[in-house]
Write a structure and sequence with these properties.
Layout (H helix, E strand, L loop, with lengths): L11 H14 L3 H11 L15 H4 L3 H20 L4 H17 L4 H17 L6 H20 L1
Helix pairs in contact: 1-7, 2-4, 2-6, 4-5, 5-7, 6-7
Length: 150
């Protein structure tokens, strides 16, 4: 069982760090999704449009890029509101939790996304900022898990 993280309080410095890093990685959606699915291949079947296809082959397709773009667009919405409208960011994440609950996505799968993404951040040279990113993921998962539990 995956525990719901406590709701963090963000410092201005953390928000600035997260948003600065985000500007450097938001164009890496395909890499983020591919890393997640490579690290946790049990999640690949969730993506029905890729059923029966090799992940390495699918990575270069427009469909994979579209799926990655959907994830990035959602996170862009959260990032735009982070620090100035955390309630608005939470509303986006509540919707994410609600829609993914209907798809049968578990807390463990969201936790795996966190793990894969923070690992990739380290590989991209942003590992020194993991304290801020962990606060962000605590926020994301607190809201999403609350929606999954509803």
């Amino acid at each position: 069982m995956v525990a719901t993280p406590a709701m963090p309080t963000f410092t201005d410095a953390q928000v600035a760090t997260i948003k600065g890093d985000w500007n450097n990685i938001k164009d890496k959606g395909v890499d983020i999704l591919f890393h997640f699915l490579t690290k946790f291949p049990g999640n690949y079947p969730m993506f029905k449009k890729f059923a029966g296809k090799d992940l390495a082959t699918v990575k270069g397709t427009p469909e994979f890029a579209d799926q990655a773009k959907a994830i990035i667009n959602l996170l862009n919405g959260v990032m735009d509101k982070l620090g100035s409208d955390n309630n608005g960011a939470a509303a986006i994440l509540t919707n994410l939790g609600t829609t993914h609950k209907a798809k049968g996505v578990s807390k463990e799968q969201f936790q795996q996304f966190r793990e894969a993404t923070t690992e990739l951040l380290g590989q991209l040279g942003l590992g020194g900022n993991l304290g801020a990113w962990n606060a962000l993921f605590d926020f994301l998962l607190n809201v999403v898990f609350t929606a999954l539990d509803a």
